[in-house]
Amino acid sequence: MTGLQDRLTPEQVEEFGREMDAIRQRIVADLGQEDVDYIQNVIKTQRTLEVTGRALMYLPPAWPLAVASLSLAKILDNMEIGHNVMHGQYDWTRDPALSSQQFEWDTVAPSENWRHSHNYIHHTYTNILDKDRDIGYGILRMDPAQKWHPYYLGNPVYATLLAFIFQWGVMLHDLEFDRIVRGERKWSEFAEVRAKMVRKAARQIGKDYVLFPLLTGPLAPLTLAGNVTANVTRNLWAFAIIFCGHFPADVESFTEAETEQETRGQWYLRQILGSANITGGKLFHILTGNLSHQIEHHLFPDIPARRYPQIAAEIRGICEKYGLPYNTGPLHKQLFSVAKKIVKLALPGSGGAREPEQPTTLEPELKAA
């Protein structure tokens, strides 16, 4: 693993892992009604905002308020509810409405596809080149170890387009177009994945761009414009928060060989080195789904996200104890850092690809971490 030998001794790595395990065990033991009340209140707020937004669409002078209300509803559904519930953060409640396997969110990406590509692939192989497909989403060059190609001159353009249509990018991510083009996968392998995409996209398009506009009669064009605006607002917000948590300066990546025979302590360490936080107030954190605490989320992805602010200072203190970086900063700083990286990596000479490594497999127990 990159830089491990220079940072910590094997004994320190394992002690670091034990401290992380202890925090996790303490939180799990403390889960209870407050956590249930919190997520249920967020769900009620989201539904109230959505109903309010839909109702205000019937009043043309209130169109900006309708769009704002609907945008906030979609952001909450995407970030604090959908993302976190589908991570299994509330499976312990045994409430079907909070089941990671049954929840379906208000985006075109089918939840079942997303759970595989995100919960399993991304959170098992976080920032491992050629394993974590969230590095560049198969579209962008986001790490200097990715071999440069003239195609990447369009990095800033691709990133901008992805930000506006982010929900569609997340959906299409599961088709692995880049691997199909390289001949590593066959189009026919994705028949079931495509079928789920078509069904989900049809429902979303029918709901936002056909049904709800028609329900407002002569105001249909305004309603259609409002729904498009709300979806784009949600897309831009989700893109900004997710990219600021994964791609600012000093966030590290790894090769498969560097993570061979990875221990649990090393897995925790990789999450610290491969993540970044965003500072802000309570409302800001809620609207990010607490992914503004991306470090804590990568350490404990299946623990209710509302707990991340409670342990952030403790995690940071442990990092300081071991001399480890704790990458954090305000949104504008992290976003500028990401934009700078996107532009820099569009150009040749901005980094060299590492030598190809023989594929390895992480230890099975780490896949559930």
TrEMBL record:
InterPro entries the record matches: FA_desaturase_dom (IPR005804), Fatty_acid_desaturase (IPR012171)
Top-rank taxon, per record: Bacteria
GO cellular component terms given for this protein: membrane
GO BP term, pick one: lipid metabolic process
GO molecular function: oxidoreductase activity, acting on paired donors, with oxidation of a pair of donors resulting in the reduction of molecular oxygen to two molecules of water
Region (Disordered): 349-369
One Pfam entry name: FA_desaturase
Residues annotated as domain Fatty acid desaturase: 62-328
Protein name: Fatty acid desaturase
Upper lineage: Bacteria, Bacillati, Actinomycetota, Actinomycetes, Pseudonocardiales
